[in-house]
Amino acid sequence: MIYLWKKSISMSPKIKSFLIYGVSFTALFLISRFIVSQFMEQGMMTMFIPIAVAMIISPKPHIEETENGREYGLKSIFLKKPFKF
Fold first, then answer.
1. Which residue in 14, 31, 81, 84 has the fewest CB atoms around it within 10 Å?
2. Does residue 2 lie in a domain region?
3. Phi-psi region of 11 (alpha: psi -120 to 50; beta: other; left: phi over 0)
4. Which domain holds residue 65?
């Protein structure tokens, strides 16, 4: 009975990949904003630099069409192959 309950609340790979992307982007943005705010005065650049850093470093959602359907994963600048779910 417990096994069926756990099975019914599992996330789809699409939701999981976009959720991980959102969390990683937010975490990288906050960390880089803290670091930039230590070295620069408050202004427009203290907002744009962390956004750019988070966009470049955070893994991007990757959708691949295959014979079996769509495969969802994350692609990073640090990995050659996408991480698939």
1. 81
2. no
3. beta
4. 11-84
Place of tokens 């790979």: 13
5-47: pLDDT as tens digits: 555 567 787 788 888 889 999 999 999 999 999 988 888 888 8
For residue 46, is it within any domain? Answer: yes
Return phi, psi of residue 58, to 5°. Answer: -70, 145
What residues form DSSP beta bridges with 33? none
- 72 and 16 in contact (C-beta within 8 Å)? yes
Identify whether 4 is part of a domain. no
Main-chain dihedrals φ then ψ at residue 45, nearest 5 degrees: -70, -30
> What dihedral angle (degrees, nearest 10) is formed by the CA atoms of 37, 38, 40, 45?
-20
Q: Lowest-confidence range among 2-11, 31-40, 49-58, 76-85?
A: 2-11
In this structure, is residue 70 part of a structural domain? yes
Domains in the chain: how many in total?
Answer: 1
